[in-house]
Amino acid sequence: IHFFSPKNYKYLFTQELNKQVIYKYTKANASSKDGKLLCLYDNELKKTFIYMFSTSERKFVKKVHLKWNEGVTEISRFSRDDKFIGVGSANGTTCIYSGKNGKLIATLPKQSEYISEIAFSKKNSLVAFSSFNKRLIIYDLLKNKPITNYTNDDVISSMAFLNKLDLVVCCNRDNRIFLFDVTNGKTVRELGETIASPVAIKLDENDQYCL
Predict the structure, then answer these.
(1) 3-state helix, strand, coil in the chain (%, to 5)
(2) Which of 2, 147, 193, 198 has a CA 20 to 30 Å removed from the CA of 18?
(3) What is the per-residue pLDDT across 110-155, written as a single tens digit (0 to 9) for each?
(4) Nearest of 108, 21, 177 to residue 168 by alpha carbon
(5) Which residues have a Cβ under 8 Å from the Cβ of 161 and sit 6 or more positions away?
(6) pTM (2 decimals)?
(7) Concatenated DSSP letters for 32-72?
(8) How far is CA 90 from each of CA 74, 86, 161, 209, rounded to the nearest angstrom?
């Protein structure tokens, strides 16, 4: 695990973990915005944990087991403010946890295939998740129910909510990029294609994005 400072262009901190512990699939592991919380899948124990950076010990320590996810973790994502963590498993289970204490917030509708991506809206009222069954589901965390269940033409490999509108920018495994309208539950604009399927989409406050 490395803390890297782009400003100073150097590593601020490095910690080595057991190579057998961390699952090799990169989307199974996630970091909070400030880098002080990690969501890691333990490949030896077959469980997912939140690790917290201990200032006094100068290392990451295991904090809590996210016990409601079943099977191998395929995707984990923090919300933009790090209040929530979404974890999706190979058996189609998706759970939302508190980033503070790992408490279960919601269990989303189980899917028939692997969970491929999870994204939170800016204020965390909505969460989008997709599966290898080519489904895109928008779930209302405040009302605790799905509001959109859309069948896509391919698996969504990455996505992100826009800041100012009820739109989600999505990228398929076949490299197609498009905008999805949450209110109407349909694709509203094609944005072209990428050379390769991106691992993540990042947005700034003006809804400019990079893949």
Answers:
(1) 0, 50, 45
(2) 198
(3) 999 999 999 999 999 999 999 999 999 999 999 999 999 999 999 9
(4) 177
(5) 119, 120, 121, 122, 126, 128, 167, 168
(6) 0.88
(7) -TTSSEEEEEETTTTEEEEEEEETTTTEEEEEEE-TT--S-
(8) 6, 14, 24, 28
